[in-house]
Every structure is written in structure tokens, then in C-alpha cells.
Amino acid sequence: GGRHVAALVLARGGSKGIKLKNIKPLAGIPLLGWVLRAAIDSGMFNSIWVSTDHDEIEKVAKTWGAKVHRRSPEVSKDTSSSVETIQEFLRNNTEVDVVCHIQATSPCLHPSHLQKALKMIMEDGYESVFSVVRRHEFHWKEVKKGNFSACRIFHLSLMKDQQ
């Protein structure tokens, strides 16, 4: 049959910021649960995976219907890149042809977003698709000692959050 399309969520236990943020509840559902539900509801995936190094995250992932890739210590460090982790996943799961990397921290992800992105790959011939977000934030800078002024900075944030 067609290509094997896998969804992959990277969710490390040892996040530097909020401890185990990937499974913190938001409106009663763990962050991980929101994105796994979107992946399941999209109906686009032959398999849905969470890559983790942590037992508690593994448990939540399985509760929400995902398979678990236990990543090696080599790709579980603070310095490990998403790409290295995805490459390891692909080496271990050779049946996968297309991998959709989903941020665990995107609870507003809608199944239709995944459907659109995958249509671009499956039907429109794109090799890769990624989403960025335009952030409108206030940044304050000190002009003279004690005088602060606000300057708006617009920048594209390329989902570099590691997970």
C-alpha cells in the first residue's frame, strides 16, 4: 500500500524550564493529550508515537493511545537537537516513510492543521512542511539610566524549543 505516515511527539522528562511540562494538565488534559488527540482525530497517521526518556511521560502517552519510542541517553541531553532524536526514531522504525514532528507544547493544534500539512506532502509533492508563528511581544529597553521605553519587536520563531 501507500507510504507509512507516523506522527512523532518529542517529550523529554528532563526539561530545563517547567518540570515535566509535557504532561502538565491544561483544562484537565495533559499537554501531551491535546496533541495526541489532534493526531488521532486527523485520521492521517498509520502510527502515532511519543519519543521520551521518562516513565511518567510513557504512561501518559500510552493512556492517550500513542506508541512509545524510548530514546537513548545520547539524544536525551539538553544539547540534543530535535533532528537527532527524529533520526534515531527513524533508524529504529524503518517502516516509516513520512514523519510528522508535532510540538508537545501546542495544545491549540487542530486536526485540520495536520491534514493540510500532510496533504502538501502526500499530494502536492512538497518534501517538507513546517509551521512558524509570528510573535508580537513587548520588549523593554533602557534608554538612559532609569528611563525605559517599549519597542515592539516582530520576529519569526522557528519551533526551536527542542520539545
Automatic annotation (TrEMBL):
<protein>
    <submittedName>
        <fullName>Cytidine monophosphate N-acetylneuraminic acid synthetase</fullName>
    </submittedName>
</protein>
<dbReference type="Pfam" id="PF02348">
    <property type="entry name" value="CTP_transf_3"/>
</dbReference>
<dbReference type="InterPro" id="IPR050793">
    <property type="entry name" value="CMP-NeuNAc_synthase"/>
</dbReference>
<dbReference type="GO" id="GO:0008781">
    <property type="term" value="F:N-acylneuraminate cytidylyltransferase activity"/>
</dbReference>
<dbReference type="InterPro" id="IPR003329">
    <property type="entry name" value="Cytidylyl_trans"/>
</dbReference>
<dbReference type="InterPro" id="IPR029044">
    <property type="entry name" value="Nucleotide-diphossugar_trans"/>
</dbReference>
